[in-house]
Amino acid sequence: MLDTNVAPPPRAGRREWLGLLALALPTLMIALDIGALFLALPHLSTDLKASGTQQLWITDIYGFMIAGFLITMGTLGDRIGRRRLLLIGAAGFGVASVIAAFSTSPEMLILARALLGIAGATLGPSTLALISNMFRDPKQMGVAISLWAFCQFGGAALGPVIGGVMLEHFWWGSVFLLGVPVMVLLMIVGPILLPEYRDQGAGRLDLFSVVLSLGAILPIVYGVKQLAAGDNASKLVPVGAIVVGLLVGLVFVRRQLRLPSPLLDLRLFRASAFSTALSAMLLASATLAGVSLMTSQYVQSVLGLNPAEAGLWQAPTGLGIAIGVLSTPSIVKKLAPSTVITGGLVVTLAGLLILTQVSSTGGPVIVSLGVGMAALGVGPLFVLGTGLVVGSAPPEKAGSAASMSETSNVFGSTAGLALLGSVGAFVFRHQIADATDNAVARETIAGAVFTAKGLPAEQSKALLSAANDAFTSGLNIVAVISAVIIVGLIVLTTVVLRQKTPPAVPAGADGGTGDDDKVTAAS
């Protein structure tokens, strides 16, 4: 029986809303970073003479380090204070951004991107945890987290645009410097606007689990990328790396099942709705990221657009998903949540089918339309899926479930960059092999464009035509694979989620805090 004498949760005031604005800064920058990097990749690859595999590591390592450390940093924030961890991460992100901007070799840039990933992993859990503590009123919390999510996807839309303008007027390293003033501002206003929270009942951080999680993820990714890239005469090393990663992953799983306070509570996966929603968000993130990587290079290297123009034509990716996220709460008032999710995925499927028909001589309209539709359609899945993940977990596991939701999105995106990017690279190298013997031209589309500039007119035209056809074929195949994945998700979500009713807003809008109750606050 409901106790009507329970006092309503306190409502947030001006300081909390200004604090939300401060928390939006790091959220926006994480999204901006990946979007801007896509456009900078052809330029930095030429300048640093990065191989195809090194390009993938430059792109992938950032997200994989975030995914590997995300849950770890969430637990660390509970212990040392979420505001403190946020400010430490902001400082680290700023320093690593400067290192990345002035890198002089692919290896230096890869290291800087890894440091950016570790610093970035401190920002996501800290912002969400602070929001859940600052906004205790259910309606206010729903609004706050919706705006937080909008910053993520709005950053994805602004990334190509801002990055394109920067590349038009400055060198490629300038895109990394975008985060420096933002992080400095956060370090100034954070102590003033943000309260400090610590969870006195937080479990002990298991460092061995942290090592095992990285030991499982990185070797598998390395092995898959090396096999797809074809850089090894012997397949023994990449296959061995995959086997090692799988074995370490098995040890990690067994340890998590035995620990009283695991780094990753795998018992939550016993709920079918939880595991289905989490898997769907991971795979949707992977397909969208992989397609975005291919289309961003297509509009620059194949269509020959300058960075600013390419950024504008890529903006529908972030805008589409942002519109999908913001419109979902209104749509779900009229339709069943499972219907909204399935309908959105059908829109995504239509966009991917459009991308399978892109040609090397076409214009940017069809590409922009296809990727925009694909992004628009996954918005409902991310909003309702997050609510379903948290709602499927018991109250005491809500914080852990929210961390897994964020981890699945980040890991899915970076897995899509690695795996689908590798598929596109493999198709390119396989198809262009008959057109040229030049090693640089056969490595990447950027290398082919660079090589063609030094050839006589007729040879240059022939090489560019072959390279454009090869890269476009890679884009088409990546779109086909992504479409097959989305078809599987449509079937999965229709069958499993049709009996479920996820909330219409992100985690926390149901009145829970998304955090444990044993929290002490200190201004």
Mean pLDDT: 79
Largest sheet: 2 strands, antiparallel
Please state the overall shape, judged from the principal axes of the Cα atoms: globular
- Strand sequence of the main sheet, in spatial order? 1-2
Number of DSSP strand runs: 2
Number of helices: 16
Spans of at least 5 consecutive residues with low confidence: 501-523
N- and C-termini, Cα separation: 36 Å
Structural class: mainly alpha
Reading the helices and strands in chain order gives HHHHHHEHHHHHHHHHHE
Strand content: under 5%
Helix content: over 70%
Q: Which keywords apply here?
A:
523 residues, mainly alpha, two-stranded antiparallel sheet, 2 strands, globular, disordered C terminus
Please tell me about this protein's structure.
Helices cover 76% and strands 2% of the residues. α1 (14-48) runs antiparallel to α6, α3 (82-101) packs antiparallel against α6 (179-193) and α9 runs parallel beside α13 (398-432). The longest helix is centred in the C-terminal third of the chain and has 41 residues, at 457-497. It contains 16 helices and two strands. With 523 residues, the protein is mainly alpha-helical.
